[in-house]
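Handoff note, outgoing to incoming analyst
You'll be picking up this chain. Sequence as last confirmed:
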Amino acid sequence: MAKVAFVGFGEVNTPIDIIVRKCAAAAESLEKEGLDLVKVFPVTDDYEEKDIKKAVDALKGEAFDALVVCIAGWIPTHAVVKITEHYRDIPMVLWGLCGWMESDGRLVTTADQAGTSALRKTFYDLGYTFKYVYDIIGLPSNTKKVAAYAKAAAAAKRLRHARGGMAGYRDMNLYGTQVDGPSLKREIGPELETFEMLEIQQRYEKITDEEKQAVIDKAIAKWKFLKPAKPEGLFKAAGYYLAVKSICDERGYDTISLKDVDGMKKLLGFPPAPIFMLLSDEAGLCTVPENDGLGSITQMMVKYLTGQCAAYLEFYEFFEDSVLAGVPDYVPAEVVDGDVTVMPAAFGELSEGILNVSRVKTGLLTMCRLTCIDGVYYMHMVTGEGKTPMKWEEAGWTQPAPQLPGLRVYLDNVPDFAEKVMCQHYIISYGDNSELIQNLCDILGIEVI
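Most recent structure output, in case you need it:
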């Protein structure tokens, strides 16, 4: 829940009951959107500045994700700035309310937009990070826009101290999955900490069969197996899950990636799909394979904004009107339509593993990917309609080849998307979350492309 300072303003000569009524209604509407408000209103431009001092004292010592500057009527600029300057380092919303129509057709105004139009450029000149929102008579209030920005501010604050883990580094010697640590910390905030796969193995060896069996009985038993899996595979999945989870718990990781092809599969002989499933579904972590650093960061951004698991999909084919996006290993239970369905399978020369073959939920999607170009961060983002794809397979799987989880995502402009695509992995969330993501990027200074 985003914690917000809500300060309502109105000019000293405006009837005070009107300002109070308007501010109270605005604050209540934000609380209904799930914001935790510390409310201070009305603040006027009284000559002795008693209201200003009262507001500063009321907010003193509190930590906020955002400041909502609610303009319920004309207010001289100085009365607002004397409060906002105490919070210049947090994102703000400059929200102008509006007048109303009387039954006889008269429009009554408290000059709300006189106040906001006097303040908008002032906020810009002062270097504030802010969003300008104004209401219009006869239309619904822009409560949701204000709340969306406040939630993005909370996500930005959380990112500043977020941590993710990565076992190994640069799986398959890929270029696009690497991260520049100093610029990431400077511009966005999270730390991606690497640890050796040896640490996973050492912890795995200390886990008892009873602990592994408990995971099998509690979590793996929920899965629908199309064919029986070897018992040793189930025990490995449970044991490695507990080993990785213990590392994540100790270090406070919100996201985890493992060295997949050149690590878990090649060195330990165990494809990590069921480990990722357990880490996502049971431990509540963001998960992405192949040491995908910026994929992990994108996941945290999306999860902090939406509360969703922020699953990854990988591109297989481009069509004129759509893209085929799927995974060769697993999807979180949250995005599964029906039962979480698995089967033992092998790909090429790799060891047999437990492959997720679940059907993926369809619907409106937001797909995005954080990227870095010449030291500058950008977010590539599109919305599209995810539909169940035709029957398809990836060449190399043991026949009969499994139907991999995936979606055919219909886009407005596939050529434009393809020209800007930044990696094989994109992070999905359900619904149109573009405003939330745009707000977060605005706060962080990241251009959306």
